[in-house]
Amino acid sequence: MTTRIELLRLLADGGFHSGTDMGRALGVTRAAVCKGVKGLAAAGVEIHRVTGRGYRLATQLAPLDERVIRKRLAAAGFEWRGRLEILEEVDSTNRYLLERARDAASGHVCLAEAQPCGRGRRGRNWVTTPYHNLMLSIAWRFQSGPGMVAGLALAAGVALTRALEEYGVDGARLKWPNDVLWNGRKLAGLLADVEGEAAGPCLVVLGVGVNGYIAERDGARIDQPWVDLQTITGASVDRNRLAALVIGQLARTCEKFGAHGFAPFQAEWERRHLYAGRPVRLMQGETVHRGTVAGIDDSGALLLRDAQGRTRAFYSGDISLRPAA
């Protein structure tokens, strides 16, 4: 555990702590404490310093904690036996698990406090504020081949919206293929990576990013309307609780998907789709397709009905879905 994480744990109670007291508690010098505080501030954690009183977090913030997450999973009926890793920083939680694919068993979960190279769909960066958001990946092994991934990614979207509802977020909606929006603004997203032979079996890594709190300087780098949980709920985000909800829902979904495929999730996904039955534009490179969303097929492809009444299926890839202009 790094000094920065240990400092966050001490400061998580919301009270003032002197540099001397924190150094004594951690067994480091005051200079090391000062360096750690500066590192946290540089990463986007707002810390107040008052002469004679010490340091205090500007807003409530607790680091991710494996023990707390496992305890919450157990309370929800999951005696989590899978590996659960929390990293202070990693380029990508998905990539981290894929690089360990040989040893990754179903239920291997990786969470990160900071992810400077997080990936979104279509090669975009996922912009985050360190120590404030939920970034996790879960590995799962399936007997079927990579062709099932599109349906699994949509099923995972259902799992994510269920978890957000359990957390207390009303009105979260899915946007094909793997975004979660709230009032038309992006709140969360998913990314599925796969390794395996065409006929199976395969390993799928599902990556999830949820905006807990986005600092103003980071929000300025996001090229689309966005929202975070702190704005929606008006309260600091309990990321350990949220992580347990998301992990639990994803695990249930992977188990059910492995046994029954996408069929049990299709109707619910369509019910949660923001653009269900609505006119849209679908951008595919330089080509723009216009029509009305007519649902999804049993593989997760988007069905678009054009003005002539013809229905065409579109598959996830370099495609962007927007409301009709």
From TrEMBL:
PROSITE patterns: BPL_LPL_CATALYTIC (PS51733). Gene3D superfamilies: 2.30.30.100, Bira Bifunctional Protein, Domain 2, Winged helix-like DNA-binding domain superfamily/Winged helix DNA-binding domain. Residues 69-258 form the BPL/LPL catalytic domain. The keyword Transferase does not apply. Residues 19-38 bind DNA. Belongs to the biotin--protein ligase family. This is Bifunctional ligase/repressor BirA. Acts both as a biotin--[acetyl-CoA-carboxylase] ligase and a repressor. PANTHER family: BIOTIN PROTEIN LIGASE, BIOTIN--PROTEIN LIGASE. GO terms for cellular component: cytoplasm. GO terms for molecular function: ATP binding; biotin--[biotin carboxyl-carrier protein] ligase activity; DNA binding. Biotin binds at S92, T93, N94, Q115, R119, G120, R121, K186. Pfam families: BPL_C, BPL_LplA_LipB, HTH_11. GO terms for biological process: regulation of DNA-templated transcription.
